[in-house]
Amino acid sequence: GVPVVEEPEGLEDALSFLVAQGFGYRHWTDAYLAAFALAGGYRLVTFDQDFLRFPGLNLLLLKS
C-alpha cells in the first residue's frame, strides 16, 4: 500500500523557494507536491511532464 505521511519539516521553505523561482498560482498545486517530495526526501511518481521543471526533484516519469 501507499503510506499516508504528515507534511515534512522544511515544506514551507521548499515551497517558498519554488514559488520564488517563478512558479505562479497556476502551478501552485504542482509546486506544493514538488516541495513536499523535496522536503521529505520522497520520489514523485507521475505521468505529468510538467514536473520536469522543478530542479532537484527525485522524479519517476511514467509513460502513458
From TrEMBL:
Residues 7-55 form the PIN domain. Signal peptide: none annotated. It comes from the Bacteria. This is VapC toxin family PIN domain ribonuclease.
